[in-house]
TrEMBL record:
It is an enzyme of class 7 (translocase). Its main location: cytoplasm. GO terms for molecular function: ATP binding; ATP hydrolysis activity; protein-exporting ATPase activity; proton-transporting ATP synthase activity, rotational mechanism. This is Flagellum-specific ATP synthase. Coiled coil: none annotated. It comes from Escherichia coli. Pfam families: ATP-synt_ab, T3SS_ATPase_C. The gene is fliI_1. One of its GO terms (biological process) is protein secretion by the type III secretion system.
Length: 358
Protein backbone atom coordinates (compact mmCIF):
# COMPACT_ATOMS: atom_id res chain seq x y z
CA UNK A 1 0.00 0.00 0.00
CA UNK A 2 1.58 3.33 -1.05
CA UNK A 3 2.11 6.28 1.27
CA UNK A 4 1.40 8.84 -1.46
CA UNK A 5 0.36 9.04 -5.12
CA UNK A 6 1.76 6.28 -7.36
CA UNK A 7 3.33 7.46 -10.61
CA UNK A 8 5.64 5.68 -13.05
CA UNK A 9 5.67 2.36 -11.21
CA UNK A 10 6.10 -0.61 -13.56
CA UNK A 11 5.81 -4.37 -12.88
CA UNK A 12 9.04 -5.71 -11.43
CA UNK A 13 10.38 -2.28 -10.42
CA UNK A 14 12.16 -1.97 -7.10
CA UNK A 15 10.45 0.83 -5.19
CA UNK A 16 11.73 2.80 -2.19
CA UNK A 17 11.12 6.31 -0.89
CA UNK A 18 13.13 9.24 -2.24
CA UNK A 19 14.80 10.04 1.07
CA UNK A 20 16.19 6.52 1.52
CA UNK A 21 19.31 5.36 -0.27
CA UNK A 22 19.41 1.80 -1.55
CA UNK A 23 21.93 1.04 1.20
CA UNK A 24 19.63 2.57 3.79
CA UNK A 25 16.95 -0.02 3.13
CA UNK A 26 18.77 -2.39 5.45
CA UNK A 27 18.49 -0.04 8.45
CA UNK A 28 14.98 1.26 7.76
CA UNK A 29 13.64 4.68 6.87
CA UNK A 30 15.69 7.62 8.19
CA UNK A 31 13.73 10.69 9.31
CA UNK A 32 14.93 14.09 10.62
CA UNK A 33 15.41 14.47 14.37
CA UNK A 34 16.93 16.96 16.79
CA UNK A 35 16.29 20.42 18.29
CA UNK A 36 15.89 21.95 14.81
CA UNK A 37 12.38 20.47 14.74
CA UNK A 38 11.14 22.66 17.62
CA UNK A 39 8.41 25.04 16.51
CA UNK A 40 7.80 23.10 13.29
CA UNK A 41 4.75 21.34 11.83
CA UNK A 42 5.64 18.25 9.79
CA UNK A 43 3.80 15.37 8.17
CA UNK A 44 4.41 11.69 8.85
CA UNK A 45 7.35 11.64 6.42
CA UNK A 46 9.14 14.61 7.97
CA UNK A 47 8.08 17.03 5.23
CA UNK A 48 7.13 20.57 6.36
CA UNK A 49 3.47 21.57 6.44
CA UNK A 50 4.04 25.08 7.80
CA UNK A 51 5.29 26.62 4.55
CA UNK A 52 8.89 26.81 5.77
CA UNK A 53 11.94 25.02 4.31
CA UNK A 54 12.79 21.51 5.40
CA UNK A 55 14.30 21.33 8.92
CA UNK A 56 17.95 22.38 8.92
CA UNK A 57 19.35 19.31 10.60
CA UNK A 58 21.79 16.57 9.73
CA UNK A 59 20.52 14.36 12.54
CA UNK A 60 18.36 11.49 11.38
CA UNK A 61 17.19 8.23 12.85
CA UNK A 62 15.27 5.08 12.07
CA UNK A 63 11.52 5.20 12.55
CA UNK A 64 11.37 2.14 14.79
CA UNK A 65 13.71 1.58 17.75
CA UNK A 66 14.50 -1.66 19.60
CA UNK A 67 12.30 -2.47 22.61
CA UNK A 68 13.43 -0.81 25.85
CA UNK A 69 14.76 -3.12 28.56
CA UNK A 70 12.08 -2.82 31.30
CA UNK A 71 14.65 -3.37 34.07
CA UNK A 72 16.56 -0.27 32.94
CA UNK A 73 13.58 2.06 33.20
CA UNK A 74 13.52 4.57 36.02
CA UNK A 75 10.44 4.12 38.26
CA UNK A 76 7.76 6.83 38.23
CA UNK A 77 8.81 8.90 41.25
CA UNK A 78 8.20 12.58 40.46
CA UNK A 79 4.88 14.42 40.22
CA UNK A 80 4.17 16.17 36.92
CA UNK A 81 2.28 19.48 37.10
CA UNK A 82 -0.19 19.38 34.20
CA UNK A 83 -1.64 22.81 34.95
CA UNK A 84 -5.13 21.25 35.25
CA UNK A 85 -6.37 21.34 38.86
CA UNK A 86 -8.67 18.28 38.94
CA UNK A 87 -5.88 16.16 37.46
CA UNK A 88 -3.21 17.51 39.80
CA UNK A 89 -5.38 17.09 42.90
CA UNK A 90 -7.44 13.95 42.30
CA UNK A 91 -5.67 12.08 39.47
CA UNK A 92 -2.04 12.98 40.11
CA UNK A 93 0.21 12.09 37.17
CA UNK A 94 3.89 11.21 37.46
CA UNK A 95 6.72 12.03 35.10
CA UNK A 96 7.03 9.13 32.67
CA UNK A 97 3.43 7.96 33.09
CA UNK A 98 1.23 6.98 30.13
CA UNK A 99 -2.38 8.11 30.44
CA UNK A 100 -5.45 7.71 28.28
CA UNK A 101 -8.02 10.44 27.73
CA UNK A 102 -11.31 8.63 27.03
CA UNK A 103 -14.14 10.64 25.54
CA UNK A 104 -16.86 10.71 22.95
CA UNK A 105 -16.98 13.38 20.28
CA UNK A 106 -17.53 17.00 21.25
CA UNK A 107 -16.85 16.91 25.00
CA UNK A 108 -13.67 18.99 25.02
CA UNK A 109 -10.80 16.51 24.82
CA UNK A 110 -8.80 18.51 22.24
CA UNK A 111 -9.11 21.69 24.29
CA UNK A 112 -8.04 19.83 27.43
CA UNK A 113 -4.98 18.58 25.55
CA UNK A 114 -4.26 22.17 24.54
CA UNK A 115 -4.39 23.25 28.19
CA UNK A 116 -1.87 20.55 29.06
CA UNK A 117 0.39 21.56 26.17
CA UNK A 118 0.39 25.17 27.35
CA UNK A 119 0.78 24.69 31.09
CA UNK A 120 2.51 21.34 31.71
CA UNK A 121 6.01 21.69 33.12
CA UNK A 122 8.01 19.91 30.41
CA UNK A 123 11.12 20.73 28.41
CA UNK A 124 9.68 19.67 25.05
CA UNK A 125 6.17 18.92 23.80
CA UNK A 126 5.56 16.53 20.89
CA UNK A 127 2.05 16.53 19.44
CA UNK A 128 0.81 13.81 17.09
CA UNK A 129 -2.45 14.73 15.33
CA UNK A 130 -3.38 11.41 13.76
CA UNK A 131 -6.48 10.88 11.65
CA UNK A 132 -8.18 14.11 12.68
CA UNK A 133 -10.04 16.53 10.40
CA UNK A 134 -7.80 18.98 8.54
CA UNK A 135 -9.68 21.94 10.00
CA UNK A 136 -9.00 20.67 13.51
CA UNK A 137 -5.27 20.46 12.82
CA UNK A 138 -5.00 24.16 12.01
CA UNK A 139 -7.35 25.13 14.83
CA UNK A 140 -5.35 23.11 17.37
CA UNK A 141 -2.04 24.66 16.29
CA UNK A 142 -3.18 28.29 16.05
CA UNK A 143 -5.90 28.64 18.68
CA UNK A 144 -5.47 25.84 21.21
CA UNK A 145 -1.70 25.30 21.28
CA UNK A 146 -0.94 28.99 20.72
CA UNK A 147 2.36 30.73 20.03
CA UNK A 148 3.70 30.07 23.53
CA UNK A 149 3.04 26.34 23.37
CA UNK A 150 4.19 25.99 19.78
CA UNK A 151 7.62 27.52 20.51
CA UNK A 152 8.64 24.45 22.53
CA UNK A 153 6.67 21.92 20.50
CA UNK A 154 7.01 19.67 17.49
CA UNK A 155 3.71 18.91 15.73
CA UNK A 156 3.31 15.86 13.49
CA UNK A 157 0.07 15.99 11.51
CA UNK A 158 -1.35 13.09 9.52
CA UNK A 159 -5.02 14.04 8.96
CA UNK A 160 -7.86 11.76 8.00
CA UNK A 161 -7.49 12.23 4.24
CA UNK A 162 -3.96 10.79 3.95
CA UNK A 163 -2.99 7.16 3.42
CA UNK A 164 -3.50 4.84 6.42
CA UNK A 165 0.19 3.96 6.15
CA UNK A 166 1.10 7.64 6.55
CA UNK A 167 -1.24 7.95 9.53
CA UNK A 168 0.49 5.04 11.24
CA UNK A 169 3.89 6.40 10.31
CA UNK A 170 2.91 9.79 11.74
CA UNK A 171 2.18 8.21 15.13
CA UNK A 172 5.45 6.28 15.06
CA UNK A 173 7.39 9.40 13.98
CA UNK A 174 5.94 11.52 16.79
CA UNK A 175 6.96 8.81 19.26
CA UNK A 176 10.44 8.60 17.70
CA UNK A 177 10.95 12.37 18.08
CA UNK A 178 9.91 12.11 21.74
CA UNK A 179 12.38 9.24 22.23
CA UNK A 180 15.17 11.33 20.71
CA UNK A 181 14.59 14.22 23.12
CA UNK A 182 14.33 11.75 26.02
CA UNK A 183 17.69 10.29 25.06
CA UNK A 184 19.10 13.82 25.25
CA UNK A 185 18.08 13.94 28.93
CA UNK A 186 15.01 16.13 28.46
CA UNK A 187 11.55 15.65 29.93
CA UNK A 188 9.02 15.31 27.11
CA UNK A 189 5.24 15.61 27.04
CA UNK A 190 3.87 13.44 24.21
CA UNK A 191 0.27 14.15 23.16
CA UNK A 192 -1.30 11.72 20.70
CA UNK A 193 -4.72 12.54 19.25
CA UNK A 194 -5.88 9.93 18.69
CA UNK A 195 -4.96 6.32 19.48
CA UNK A 196 -8.30 5.21 18.05
CA UNK A 197 -7.52 6.70 14.62
CA UNK A 198 -4.17 4.89 14.73
CA UNK A 199 -6.01 1.63 15.35
CA UNK A 200 -8.44 2.40 12.53
CA UNK A 201 -5.54 2.99 10.14
CA UNK A 202 -4.07 -0.41 11.03
CA UNK A 203 -7.52 -1.95 10.55
CA UNK A 204 -7.68 -0.52 7.01
CA UNK A 205 -4.28 -1.95 6.16
CA UNK A 206 -4.91 -5.35 7.73
CA UNK A 207 -8.27 -5.84 6.02
CA UNK A 208 -6.77 -4.74 2.68
CA UNK A 209 -4.15 -7.50 2.85
CA UNK A 210 -6.71 -10.14 3.80
CA UNK A 211 -6.36 -10.40 7.58
CA UNK A 212 -9.62 -11.73 9.06
CA UNK A 213 -11.66 -9.29 11.18
CA UNK A 214 -12.25 -10.06 14.84
CA UNK A 215 -13.78 -7.88 17.57
CA UNK A 216 -15.92 -5.11 16.02
CA UNK A 217 -14.10 -5.56 12.72
CA UNK A 218 -10.64 -5.00 14.22
CA UNK A 219 -8.11 -7.68 13.13
CA UNK A 220 -5.77 -9.22 15.73
CA UNK A 221 -2.79 -7.18 14.48
CA UNK A 222 -4.44 -3.99 15.79
CA UNK A 223 -4.22 -5.25 19.36
CA UNK A 224 -0.54 -6.11 18.84
CA UNK A 225 0.31 -2.68 17.40
CA UNK A 226 -1.18 -0.69 20.29
CA UNK A 227 1.16 -1.92 23.07
CA UNK A 228 4.13 -1.78 20.69
CA UNK A 229 3.50 1.95 20.22
CA UNK A 230 2.60 2.79 23.83
CA UNK A 231 5.52 0.90 25.40
CA UNK A 232 7.99 3.20 23.64
CA UNK A 233 6.92 6.06 25.94
CA UNK A 234 7.84 6.28 29.62
CA UNK A 235 10.97 6.96 31.65
CA UNK A 236 14.44 6.36 30.31
CA UNK A 237 17.49 5.08 32.15
CA UNK A 238 18.39 6.42 35.59
CA UNK A 239 19.43 10.06 35.42
CA UNK A 240 18.07 10.45 31.89
CA UNK A 241 14.96 12.01 30.41
CA UNK A 242 11.35 10.90 30.33
CA UNK A 243 8.29 10.77 28.09
CA UNK A 244 4.97 11.47 29.78
CA UNK A 245 2.29 10.52 27.27
CA UNK A 246 -1.39 11.35 26.93
CA UNK A 247 -3.30 9.35 24.31
CA UNK A 248 -6.86 10.25 23.41
CA UNK A 249 -9.22 7.33 22.89
CA UNK A 250 -12.46 8.06 21.03
CA UNK A 251 -15.28 6.06 22.61
CA UNK A 252 -17.92 5.70 19.90
CA UNK A 253 -21.37 6.38 21.32
CA UNK A 254 -19.73 7.02 24.72
CA UNK A 255 -19.25 3.24 24.98
CA UNK A 256 -16.48 2.62 27.52
CA UNK A 257 -16.48 -1.08 26.55
CA UNK A 258 -15.41 -0.35 22.98
CA UNK A 259 -12.65 -2.88 22.08
CA UNK A 260 -10.01 -0.18 21.51
CA UNK A 261 -10.94 1.58 24.75
CA UNK A 262 -10.89 -1.72 26.63
CA UNK A 263 -7.49 -2.65 25.20
CA UNK A 264 -6.05 0.81 25.88
CA UNK A 265 -7.13 0.71 29.53
CA UNK A 266 -5.17 -2.51 29.96
CA UNK A 267 -1.88 -1.17 28.56
CA UNK A 268 -1.91 2.39 29.96
CA UNK A 269 -0.97 3.61 33.44
CA UNK A 270 -4.36 5.19 34.03
CA UNK A 271 -7.30 6.80 32.28
CA UNK A 272 -9.17 10.09 32.44
CA UNK A 273 -12.80 9.82 31.36
CA UNK A 274 -14.63 12.88 30.05
CA UNK A 275 -18.37 12.97 30.76
CA UNK A 276 -20.92 14.17 28.23
CA UNK A 277 -23.32 14.96 31.09
CA UNK A 278 -20.81 17.38 32.64
CA UNK A 279 -20.02 18.92 29.25
CA UNK A 280 -23.69 19.48 28.51
CA UNK A 281 -24.04 21.14 31.92
CA UNK A 282 -21.27 23.58 30.98
CA UNK A 283 -18.70 22.15 33.44
CA UNK A 284 -15.25 22.13 31.84
CA UNK A 285 -12.99 20.26 31.86
CA UNK A 286 -15.69 17.60 31.97
CA UNK A 287 -13.65 15.02 33.90
CA UNK A 288 -15.63 12.17 35.43
CA UNK A 289 -13.64 11.73 38.65
CA UNK A 290 -15.49 8.55 39.66
CA UNK A 291 -14.67 6.74 36.40
CA UNK A 292 -11.06 7.97 36.18
CA UNK A 293 -7.92 6.62 37.82
CA UNK A 294 -4.17 7.23 37.93
CA UNK A 295 -2.40 3.96 38.73
CA UNK A 296 0.87 5.62 39.73
CA UNK A 297 -0.81 8.12 42.05
CA UNK A 298 -0.38 6.18 45.30
CA UNK A 299 3.42 6.13 44.87
CA UNK A 300 3.57 9.89 44.21
CA UNK A 301 1.49 11.53 46.93
CA UNK A 302 1.47 11.54 50.73
CA UNK A 303 -0.81 9.33 52.82
CA UNK A 304 -2.70 12.43 53.96
CA UNK A 305 -3.31 13.53 50.37
CA UNK A 306 -4.45 10.04 49.37
CA UNK A 307 -6.83 9.83 52.35
CA UNK A 308 -8.42 13.13 51.37
CA UNK A 309 -8.82 12.01 47.76
CA UNK A 310 -10.54 8.81 48.87
CA UNK A 311 -12.86 10.73 51.19
CA UNK A 312 -13.77 13.19 48.44
CA UNK A 313 -14.50 10.36 45.98
CA UNK A 314 -16.76 8.68 48.54
CA UNK A 315 -18.66 11.93 49.12
CA UNK A 316 -18.92 12.59 45.38
CA UNK A 317 -20.16 9.05 44.72
CA UNK A 318 -22.82 9.36 47.44
CA UNK A 319 -23.96 12.70 46.04
CA UNK A 320 -24.19 11.41 42.45
CA UNK A 321 -26.19 8.33 43.47
CA UNK A 322 -28.78 10.40 45.32
CA UNK A 323 -28.84 13.65 43.35
CA UNK A 324 -32.27 12.90 41.85
CA UNK A 325 -33.78 12.37 45.30
CA UNK A 326 -32.30 15.65 46.51
CA UNK A 327 -33.46 17.52 43.39
CA UNK A 328 -37.12 16.52 43.78
CA UNK A 329 -37.12 17.05 47.56
CA UNK A 330 -37.64 13.37 48.37
CA UNK A 331 -34.58 13.15 50.61
CA UNK A 332 -34.96 13.79 54.33
CA UNK A 333 -31.90 15.27 55.97
CA UNK A 334 -30.31 12.88 58.44
CA UNK A 335 -31.25 9.73 56.52
CA UNK A 336 -27.72 9.29 55.15
CA UNK A 337 -24.82 10.89 57.08
CA UNK A 338 -22.46 10.50 54.12
CA UNK A 339 -24.89 12.31 51.82
CA UNK A 340 -25.40 15.05 54.40
CA UNK A 341 -21.65 15.68 54.49
CA UNK A 342 -21.28 15.64 50.70
CA UNK A 343 -23.18 18.81 49.74
CA UNK A 344 -20.66 21.44 50.78
CA UNK A 345 -17.41 19.80 49.50
CA UNK A 346 -19.00 18.73 46.19
CA UNK A 347 -20.39 22.23 45.59
CA UNK A 348 -17.02 23.79 46.47
CA UNK A 349 -15.18 21.40 44.15
CA UNK A 350 -17.49 22.32 41.28
CA UNK A 351 -16.21 25.89 41.43
CA UNK A 352 -12.61 24.98 42.20
CA UNK A 353 -12.14 22.44 39.43
CA UNK A 354 -14.03 24.27 36.66
CA UNK A 355 -12.20 26.78 34.51
CA UNK A 356 -13.61 30.04 33.22
CA UNK A 357 -11.39 30.17 30.15
CA UNK A 358 -11.94 26.72 28.64
Amino acid sequence: MPLEEVEGVLPGARVYAKNISAEGLQSGKQLPLGPALLGRVLDGSGKPLDGLPSPDTTETGALITPPFNPLQRTPIEHVLDTGVRPINALLTVGRGQRMGLFAGSGVGKSVLLGMMARYTRADVIVVGLIGERGREVKDFIENILGAEGRARSVVIAAPADVSPLLRMQGAAYATRIAEDFRDRGQHVLLIMDSLTRYAMAQREIALAIGEPPATKGYPPSVFAKLPALVERAGNGISGGGSITAFYTVLTEGDDQQDPIADSARAILDGHIVLSRRLAEAGHYPAIDIEASISRAMTALISEQHYARVRTFKQLLSSFQRNRDLVSVGAYAKGSDPMLDKSHRPVAAAGGLFATRHF
